[in-house]
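Notebook entry, structure prediction.
Reason for the run: the old model in the group folder had no record of what sequence produced it. Starting over properly, with the input documented here first.
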Amino acid sequence: METPVKICTVRYFLTIFLTVFHCFIFAQTNPKENGGKRLGINYGLGTQQKFPFNLNSYTYDVEFIKLNYSQNLTRNKNLNIALSIEPGIYFSKVSETDTFTFGENNNDMTAKLKHSVSEKTINRSNEMNEYVLNVGLQMIYSINENLSPYLLGSVGPMVIDKQTKRQKKGFAFSDIFAIGLLYRTNDIILDLRFGIRHVSNAGFGHPNKGYNSSNFEIGLSLPIQKPER
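New structure, fully documented this time:
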């Protein structure tokens, strides 16, 4: 069942997205003619339990929605560098395992009573919201007018609303490296992306073991230009 926070957040992002689009004129030409500016919305899913992570000490699953603004910093024929700004919210669930061992030495009262070694495992689950602003660079190669693969690297501040055994509540950083593909048809740009993400606070607080995830996301965007006056 969708939580009220998640439903309200999705509505909030969609409202911003549609309102901003309404305030712009959408270019009917190649994106290069408007400086490669585009604005869109991305939705994605991620997990720690997949390559290249898959640690046994915890599970981490995330669902996210974010706005996506991109603007070319160069204007070459094929290879360009673009600024990427992505504010978003991540709905995550962390499950951590604590294993307690009894009777590891002869002085332990449990060992004297049971004459054996026993373990007790406790699973702790937490649902969290992560409020994120990632800023980075995209290296985009235009194969033709419709198809453009890219690499993305970004980092940015974030706030986590709940503390866990692995990570302190509050301020942290979101680091993303991704590969993607932009496919343009008419005025709509389809964005397909696979990436890895790391969350930690760079030692500003403890605990700081962090979270990792492999993410897949899909997005839609439109080229934009300022309205004529």
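Summary: DSSP finds two helices and nine strands in the chain.
The old model has been moved to the deprecated folder.
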